[in-house]
Design goal:
The complex is a heterotrimer of chains A (101), B (94) and C (57).
Chain A lengths: L3 E6 L5 H13 L3 E6 L20 E5 H6 L14 E2 L1 H10 L2 E4 L1
Parallel strand pairs in A: 1-2, 1-5, 2-3, 3-4
Chain B lengths: L2 E6 L5 H13 L3 E6 L8 H12 L3 E4 L2 H7 L2 E2 L2 H9 L3 E4 L1
Parallel strand pairs in B: 1-2, 1-5, 2-3, 3-4
Helix pairs in contact in B: 1-2
Chain C lengths: L1 E6 L5 H11 L3 E6 L7 H10 L2 E5 L1
Parallel strand pairs in C: 1-2, 1-3
Classes of the chains: A alpha/beta (101), B alpha/beta (94), C alpha/beta (57).
Amino acid sequence: MVETLGIMVSTRDSLEHLLRAVAAAEKRGLKVEVFLSGEGVLLSQDPRFALLAGRARLGLCEVSFRALGLAGEVPGMGFKDFATQARHAAMVEDCSHYLAL
Amino acid sequence: MKKVAVVVRDPQRQYEALRTSLGCLLEDHQVSYLVLDEEIHPDEAFTDNLGFLDEMEGRRYSNQPANVAKHGFTSLSLAEMGELLRQQDIIIPF
Amino acid sequence: MKILHVFRHPPDAETRQLAASLCREREATEFNLYQGPVDYDRLLDLITTHDQVISWW
């Protein structure tokens, strides 16, 4: 079974860590799932976030997204990826490894 | 089901940490919500969600006496929190 | 039980006390995310070889 790394991002200054950690996980053959919550959703507005499209399962907390006045599409995320905290909770359950940023 | 502790010490993120705790409860995780140092100042939504946490059998602890006296948290010292954290599968600091 | 402590900022006394509780009678490793350059390959090595990862403040 392929190991999975779940990354929960709740801080606005973690994009570099996220991008580099995902790249390192890819090298090891890990599947990666990312969930943005709280101020972590601000990462979705950085052009570099698009670099993750297609490389990890991406999702975010829609309540946080709207609360911070954000709108529109996010690269790599579909309608269902604008999710609730239950998505994060499922990630906690399913992932072999968990990292909070 | 996993044992999850959500530990918050940034007062600006107490509510966000509570929402994360509730999400984990909905997935049937066993959740402890730990508020360090700072008193909460809950608005209506925060108070409602604390009630939901209680109804879903989440546990909430604080080392801040005002949270125990005024907001219904169970008192835990920092040392006792450390012992509680030893029993967890996932620890999420906010 | 092997614990990996990831410190996002320099740990203060409170963080140190909580981390120490978790380490007691267990194998533990520390990784500083706040000190560059960060070796992300090593971070992933550590994440995948420890039972629990805690990203402190």
